[in-house]
Write a structure and sequence with these properties.
Largest sheet: none
Order of helices and strands: HHHH
Structural class: mainly alpha
Number of strands: 0
Shape: elongated
Length: 92
């Protein structure tokens, strides 16, 4: 029975990742680790989902400024942002 629960949790985590609900997906993976602590896949997926969450946050930050910046200003903002500068003078 634990193997079915493990499989269900990891599959639901994949579905939640597809919906960009990374926090819920990571919670499911944490629960799956409790069922099979020896498994390394949940840890790998948690790291991947955390990277996805950070990437999604960066994309949202860029897109939030898309309407207020036009042409060259937007390109400059985008380049600065991708290089680790936040566009408001603060460092990433």
């Amino acid at each position: 029975m634990p193997d079915l629960c493990y499989k269900a949790l990891t599959r639901r985590a994949q579905a939640l990742r597809g919906q960009k609900d990374f926090k819920e997906a990571i919670e499911d993976l944490e629960e799956s680790k409790k069922l099979f602590p020896q498994e390394t896949d949940p840890d790998k997926l948690i790291a991947l989902y955390n990277e996805d969450m950070e990437h999604d946050a960066r994309v949202h930050k860029i897109m939030a400024n898309a309407d207020s910046l036009k042409g060259k200003e937007y390109i400059d903002f985008l380049v600065d942002f991708l290089m680790g500068k936040m566009g408001d003078g603060s460092e990433n």
